[in-house]
Amino acid sequence: MFSTVLWPVSLQESESQNRGVMKMLQHLSAQRVLLLHVAENEPSPEAPAREKLEALRKQLEEEGFKGEAVIKTGHVATVICSYASERNVGLIVLPWKPKMIVRIALLGSVVRDVIRLSDRPVAVYKAKGVMQRRQSGGVDRIMYATAFQATDSVVMPYLKHEGIKADTLVLLHVGERAPDPRAEKTRRTQVGMNLNRLAGECSGWFGEVETISALGRPSKRIVRQAKQGDVDLIVLGKYDAPSPFGSMLGSTAEMLARTAPCSLLVVPVESLAVTGYSKSGERG
User: Fold this and answer.
1) Distances (CA, A) of 210 to 37, 147, 198, 202, 226
2) CB 7 within 8 A of CB 32
3) 91: left (phi over 0), alpha (psi -120 to 50) or beta
4) Rounded to an integer, what distance in angstroms lies between the CA atom of residue 242 and that of residue 173?
5) Residues 6+ apart with CB under 8 A from 56
6) What is the pTM of this model?
7) Is 112 exposed, middle or buried (0-12, 13-18, 19+ CB in 10 A)?
8) Which of 15, 260, 271 is closest to 143 using CA atoms?
9) d(C-alpha 36, C-alpha 262), whole Å
10) Which of 112, 143, 199, 211 could form a disulfide with 254 if both were Cys (CB 3.0 to 4.6 A apart)?
């Protein structure tokens, strides 16, 4: 599912960020990596930029990947998403670069823009968590923030993909309290049944499956549970319509890019259709 990955680079990334992204790509079983540098204000990028991109491509090949390097011009996030569609990549991976909140508000964030615009999964690499705990590149704990019917049909094939493995899967649902006790009891029962259903589906793919039902604002509660549970990778679906159980909205995914304490994998609801995969994870 992630055999071909698009890695947009600004060429200002640190060596540690590049090494971290490569570890993430190895963990996700990527084979071909397309390096893309978007020169927003430079119709003809200078030779040093091309040299840096070529050096990174060679470094990728030394790590066992098949690498390509491309330079394009235009609006960064738009070019990234259009090129991902053109090459039909299975994943876009971006390192998170911390910025001042004021700067994010004024200039926006390429990462958040890509999450909003992309019809393909987007992985956001953060130094804490994924691939950092063990030198072997393994992952201890993945947390899937589920909206049930709204996102499960597209996220589950990714959780069962051979490239996403962990000792423990945490299934988290964040909802709103129902307006009266009877309705709340019904809601809790439905949530419990759905969490147990998912746990059963995932039991053969992870050593241990934990379930958590919580109340609150999804963007804040997901972060809190990830910190409390010492999670390495958060997985969630990007869904922009209401769900009976409370959906993971696109805005929540964008916000988590900044606030999540660990790396993030965002799977749009349309991703299986556009990349040509079936719900079993096989190419159609």
Assistant:
1) 40, 16, 10, 10, 13
2) no
3) beta
4) 15
5) 9, 18, 35, 69
6) 0.87
7) buried
8) 260
9) 24
10) 112
Q: How far is CA 113 from CA 39, 43, 197, 250, in A?
A: 17, 22, 34, 11
Q: Please check the confidence at residue 246 and state whether its pLDDT lies above 50.
A: no
Largest CA distance in the chain: 68
C-beta separation of 266 from 121 below 8 A: yes
The Cα angle at residue 57 between residues 54 and 62, in degrees rounded to 5: 130
Instruction: Give the residue among 216, 26, 48 at the shortest CA–CA distance from 139.
Output: 26
Q: From CA 7, how far away is CA 21, in angstroms rounded?
A: 9
Paired sense of beta strands 263-268 and 122-125, if any: antiparallel
- Rounded (10°) angle between helices 181-202 and 152-159: 30
Q: Which residue has the tokens 């019917």?
A: 149
Q: What was the pLDDT predicted at 282? A: 44
| pLDDT tens track for 6-37 | 999 998 888 989 999 999 898 888 999 999 99
